């Protein structure tokens, strides 16, 4: 009999509202599909887009008639930014180089890649409506000397 894993805590979905889907969706489509998310068409839904991650979570971008204002303000109350993990520093550098052509504006460029601190390798960008994204390079554990596994039982 198959073993069914226990439910775990995690992100179910994130819904972002936009004042101009036609302006913002191409930026998000490029970012998310480059990061491995899959666009999920919803026939007949002209005011929104969905991208799904392999883990089942998904991101919704919707142009709602209830949206107030024209831009997100990350420095105000509410969500400041969304952070995604990338596989490596090389992937981070490549995304940074391509992002402006897809509508992303780099934030904190003078401190790249350590705007979050010396032990944090990341790129920060803003979509055409001011929603901030942080791309964090995954930390690759350093190998023990001579490639041997480190014994954590020794002190």
UniProtKB/TrEMBL annotation:
Taking every annotated instance into account, which residue ranges of this chain make up the domain VOC?
10-138
Known PROSITE patterns for this protein? VOC (PS51819)
Superkingdom, taxonomy of origin: Bacteria
Name of the protein this chain belongs to: Glyoxalase
């Amino acid at each position: 009999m198959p073993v069914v894993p226990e439910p775990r805590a995690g992100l179910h979905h994130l819904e972002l509202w936009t004042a101009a889907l036609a302006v913002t969706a191409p930026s998000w489509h490029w970012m998310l599909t480059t990061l491995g998310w899959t666009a999920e068409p919803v026939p007949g839904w002209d005011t929104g887009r969905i991208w799904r991650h392999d883990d089942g979570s998904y991101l919704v971008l919707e142009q709602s008639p209830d949206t107030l204002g024209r831009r997100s303000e990350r420095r105000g109350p509410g969500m400041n930014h969304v952070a995604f993990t990338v596989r490596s520093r090389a992937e981070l550098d490549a995304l940074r180089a391509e992002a402006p052509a897809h509508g992303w504006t780099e934030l904190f460029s003078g401190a790249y890649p350590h705007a979050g601190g010396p032990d944090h390798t990341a790129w920060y960008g803003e979509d055409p409506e001011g929603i901030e994204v942080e791309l964090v390079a995954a930390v690759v554990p350093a190998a023990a000397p001579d490639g041997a596994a480190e014994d954590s039982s020794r002190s």
